Predict the 3D structure of the following.
Amino acid sequence: MRPGSQAPKSAALDGLPRVNYYGPLAATLIATGLICALLVFLTMIAIGNTINGWNQAAVTDDGNALTGVLICGVFSILGTIMSVYFIIALVKGVRDLVTPLHYTRGTLADKRVISSRMAGDWIGITASYAGPDLDSASAVNEEALAASVDRTQIVQTRNGPPVKPQRKRSGYLTPDRLAAPIVEEEHTTGAPGPRAVFRVDPGTYAALQPGEEVLVAHSRFLEHIYFVAHLRNGQWESYRNRALI
């Protein structure tokens, strides 16, 4: 995403949605397996061409054969590295199939865009909980309730106390929310843990604000995201992940 541009927010869902854990994970594994098989096949061809070209160059001392050996050798090295990467991803996916859905909850520490829009939108979370227990991950106590008040929705009247109107959904961030200062909230589900980084949809990225409480449902090893939720006025608002890989 280029600086100054902003994707429209995704449609928010009230509460935490039910998750079809195995469907997207199986689709991701199938896609990864196909890519891995293609890479292994092309790498084997490149290695074979490298060996044949080397033998031919040793016999005939042909400069063109040496050039072919160099090109095929480079492709062999790159293909081997990429094949190992996808094999590791396959192993992680298989481990996810026998591991329950995981939840990471914490304060949204920062938002970042890596390289370009094609690299995706990333969020950094200072984790206060990470594990498979949804009740522990989504619990809202009085401190979290007080910290989750959406202050941009409070209207100050001239002669009376602040009045909080009904919430209105909008496809865009209001100017007040865009200019809201970053506030580090107190963790409510345990001691702060290490920083966790996740790639999210551009629409979800636009809806999240640094300093608010965030809950991410994901597979443990591949970290495939199923939904991202943030705490607003004591209630969870969720955004489903639309990306397969």
